[in-house]
What does this fold into?
Amino acid sequence: MDLKHRLKNIKNWQHQSYEFHFASDEEHECLCCGHRYKGNFCPCCSQKAGAGDISWNSVRKGVMEIWGLSNRSLIYSLWQLIVRPGHFISEYLRGKFQVSFPPVKMLFLVAILYTLIYYWLFQQVLNLQVEASSAVNLWDAKNAGWSRIVLSLSFLFPTWVLFQNSPKFSHLSIPKAFFIAVFMSILEIMIELFAYSLGLLCGASEDVNASLGLLLFAAYYFVAYRQIFGFGVWGTLWRHAIMMVCGIFLWIFFDEFIEYAVTPDHPLRIQSILLCSSVVVLLLLLGYILTKFTRNRH
It folds into this structure.
């Protein structure tokens, strides 16, 4: 099989990576309520057709249910988010909720896990301390998982403004943009963990780890947003660039705002806050105009 054919198969798999099994015409008797029915689930009590006596398999499922690994697997959802991010997110936005572990729950579980790994393993065991040059950096060092959530959620409003009327989504609502931000927050946390782990194995410095994480972060955002919205390379690129710059200035705004709350007498804090706010508003206005212009051209 040549490379071109393999790449085509991978692309087809990304668009549809799973198959649904439809109910057979076989009749079942529910062990829970005794109702006789045809299908995968009892219409009276919702028990699954294949449920049988308690066995070691029941023990395994009971333990796995603690982390939601028996239904809409957490690990499966994370894997799908890595290998086909945009298609996986698009499926959820279009109402295929059963293909994914609940995203908000998944975000907090991953954030808690990352905070434990970052704070306990990296800082306590491996003694990798982060130098904090500002209040936000100090908060970032102590709350690594939650700071990644704030970072990704800062792209929520820019996403809503810049990716309206896309080929795959004629109308992008703020709730849909919120869930995109949630999924991307999960992806950002996993990328950060991968970058630091790879850096530790290779003996790279912390700056190299951060740079690797940033490059992977930007690349994944570009790939995911192109798969979600269906814009071409250029259409995705300029929207992606404006969105990233807006996110950076929003993070600086958040930094300056916290510093202003700590040191309100500092004369440059208000200027920095106003400057960051103005840049974000102007960039979003520019993006909105370009979005309208390109839509009218087509």
Observations:
- The beta strands are 27-29, 36-38.
- DSSP finds twelve helices and two strands in the chain.
- Residues 267-297 form the longest helix (31 residues).
